[in-house]
Amino acid sequence: MSNIILPEGAGNGISRRQFLAGSGALAGAAALLGMAGLTPGQRAGVRLAAAAELKTDLDILQFALTLEHVEDAAYRAVNSSGLLSGKIAQYFKTFGDHEHAHVVALTGVINKMGAQPIAEQATYYFPKFGSQDEVVKFFAQVEEVGAGAYLGAAPMIQDKNLLAAAASIHNVEAQHASTLRAVMNDPAPSPAFGSPLTVDQVLAAVTPLLNPNSAPPAGKYYTNTDPAPNINVATQPVAMVANSAGLAYFADTQHTAAGPFLDYWNRHGGLVQLGFPITEPYKGPSPTNGQQYVQQYFQRARLEWHPEHKGTEFEVQLGLLGAEQLFHDMMGR
To answer: In angstroms, what CA-CA distances link 154 with 41, 80, 148, 296?
Structure first.
C-alpha cells in the first residue's frame, strides 16, 4: 500500500493502513476541521485553533487533534454519566472508542512529522444533560457539524493521499450522525449532498465547549406555526439546532428558517437573493398595512405568511420594503 506523502521536511511517510488504524483514524478529526472557539492567551493548541490559519497539512492535523480531544472528552464524560442505557449506551461506547482512536492516530502521525502534538485541554464546558434524549440530540448535532466542517475544510488539505483517506473516513462521522438520527426517530431523509460549513459557522457551534466566557445563545427557534410573540423576541440569537428537511440553522446570523419560509427561500434565490435570516418568524403588524401577519426578516427581504393561500404560490409573500422605506423617509422629513 502506498505511503502518504507528508509535507516536505516532515519525516518519513507512514502507510494509509497505519494512518487509519483503529476504526477510521481521522473520522471526526478531519471532519471537525476548523472547529475552534478558543480565545487568545490559552495554550498553544487553543491559539492555533483561534487563529484558524491552516496553511499546511500539519496545521490541519494539529487543528483536527485539538477538536478530536473535545469529542473524545465528551464521549468519555457522557459514557460515565449513567444517563445511557441499552442499545444507545452500546452505540456511545463504540463511538467513544472511535473518537479515542482518532486522537491516538493523529497524535502518532504528528509525532512522525517531527512536531509536538497539541495536548488535551484540562477542562471542557459541556452542557448539563438531564436525560438520555438530551444527550442523543446534542451528539447528533455535534456529529453533523463535524461532517459539515470537514467538507468545508477539505480544500485546504494539500496532500492528495491524505485528502483521499480523509474523504473515506468522513463516512464514519456521517454514520455516527445517521445512527443518532435514527435513535431520535427523525423521519427527515438525508439530503442528496452534504453541506460544507465555514470555519465561522463551526466556531459559532463549538466555541462554548472550549471557552467558558463565550456562552451560547439561549434563545429558542420559532416557526410559522409557533411564531415569536413580537419582533424583539424574534431578533434574539438562537442556540444551534440540527438541520433537517424542513429546518435550516444559519450560524452566520444565529437564526433559523423553517417550513414555508425556508421553502420560499430555497425557491427564490436563497442566500444570493434574500440573504441570511436576521429574525425568527414572529407575529406582528405589517409595516405596509398594519394587519397582523406571521413574518420573518431576511437581510434583503421581509416575508409574510398567508395561510389562507396555503399550498399556492401566494402562501408566502414579499413585504413591500421599498414602499415601507419611502413612507418612513417621508414621515421623517
So the answer is: 28, 33, 10, 34
